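Could you please review the protein record set out just below?
***
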Amino acid sequence: MIPLFAYRDNSCDPRRCSVKKLERRGCVRVFARVDKIPRSSLILDPSAQQALSPADRTPKSITALDCSWEVFEKIQVARWPLRRALPFLVAANPGHFGRPFMLNSVEAFAAALVILGEQEQAEEILSAFSWGIRFLEVNHDPLTEYAAAKDSAEVVEIQSCYL
């Protein structure tokens, strides 16, 4: 089991927030300050230069940035030691269903876990949501291919087939 963390700025509705639901279930630890996130954690950062790949398989933890874009641009994660962007995937959450790159935090965690070889943990966190497993169904082919890639360059090459 890879520990899951989230930086959360409380900008979204707490009744609909996937991170809050995971926190209530004990699946994720939430931080209100970026400097509290362990420096050894892999940050899921959409602006990272490198794509997440199986080569990153042994992170000490995974951290999602659950905040608005305005806040995201102000927080200091650019100098974080291990930042990775998720490759092309399609959202299955009700707010963004079918939209590419519009994953909510639980989908981002699940995608990262599948790519890193932790399918069971991904299914476990998605099971908290009525639509959760649908995310794995919608993205089955790309997730399977990304999880079989050897490194970030190969993930980007695979991604280009889906774009």
Q: What stands out?
A: Strands lie at 4-8, 29-31, 42-44, 62-66, 83-84. The radius of gyration is 14 Å. The chain has one domain: 4-162. The longest helix spans residues 105-115.
